[in-house]
Amino acid sequence: MNRTRFEKELEELHYDILKMGSLVEEAIGNSIASLVNHDKEMAQRVIDEDDRINKMEIEIDEKCAKIMVTQHPIAKDLRIVLTGLKIVTDLERMGDYAVNIARTTLRIADEKYIKPLIDIPRMSDVVREMVKLSLDSYVRQDLDLARSIGEKDEIVDALYGQIFRELLTYMIEDPRNIHQAAEFLFVARYLERIADHTTNIGEWVIYLETGERIDFKFENIKKRSGQQ
């Protein structure tokens, strides 16, 4: 393996992954902004620009395949490339969830909302931070950053539970709220799923560095129950 060439190709791979991650983060932010602001044009842009994210996934997959064929990486070098492949799959799925949120906007933007949207944007802010942390942890191969994603995931789960309970109350109080409350519940669920994909990345980074497979949600449960 040509070490200099491999490091250059790896640097390009990292740049592409960060660029794709930036597009995904922007899509998440814009999809929530479109929902909050009843902005159907912004929602449609999120949907239309998803093609860029899908195209980047294909391009990065091809670059990873080329690295493996031409450089024949082994041991940790191979794990870095394989982890990159898994990351872009997670990023593509995050982009799909952003599109789902944008489609929700298109369905209900013309309606008066049953409540101000406060916790959903808060949840989105945490999720976008998790996207950044997950990608930085991979590029830097930083275990502390990777583990911090699991801590953020607990915040997202708590917000999801709070949103679920509040919207359920709206449904019970007035059946006319059911349709819109269900739409908001789906949005919260999409954000929760995006957070899960960021934890996937963090877990793969830990495996990359230590060879150990962990589950952040299981680790959080152990912490709450006082287990070591």
Automatic annotation (TrEMBL):
<keyword id="KW-0813">Transport</keyword>
<dbReference type="Pfam" id="PF01895">
    <property type="entry name" value="PhoU"/>
</dbReference>
<dbReference type="InterPro" id="IPR026022">
    <property type="entry name" value="PhoU_dom"/>
</dbReference>
<dbReference type="GO" id="GO:0045936">
    <property type="term" value="P:negative regulation of phosphate metabolic process"/>
</dbReference>
<comment type="similarity">
    <text>Belongs to the PhoU family.</text>
</comment>
<protein>
    <recommendedName>
        <fullName>Phosphate-specific transport system accessory protein PhoU</fullName>
    </recommendedName>
</protein>
<dbReference type="GO" id="GO:0005737">
    <property type="term" value="C:cytoplasm"/>
</dbReference>
<feature type="domain" description="PhoU">
    <location>
        <begin position="120"/>
        <end position="205"/>
    </location>
</feature>
<comment type="function">
    <text>Plays a role in the regulation of phosphate uptake.</text>
</comment>
<dbReference type="InterPro" id="IPR028366">
    <property type="entry name" value="PhoU"/>
</dbReference>
<dbReference type="GO" id="GO:0030643">
    <property type="term" value="P:intracellular phosphate ion homeostasis"/>
</dbReference>
<keyword id="KW-0592">Phosphate transport</keyword>
<feature type="domain" description="PhoU">
    <location>
        <begin position="17"/>
        <end position="104"/>
    </location>
</feature>
<dbReference type="GO" id="GO:0006817">
    <property type="term" value="P:phosphate ion transport"/>
</dbReference>
<keyword id="KW-0963">Cytoplasm</keyword>
<dbReference type="InterPro" id="IPR038078">
    <property type="entry name" value="PhoU-like_sf"/>
</dbReference>
<comment type="subunit">
    <text>Homodimer.</text>
</comment>
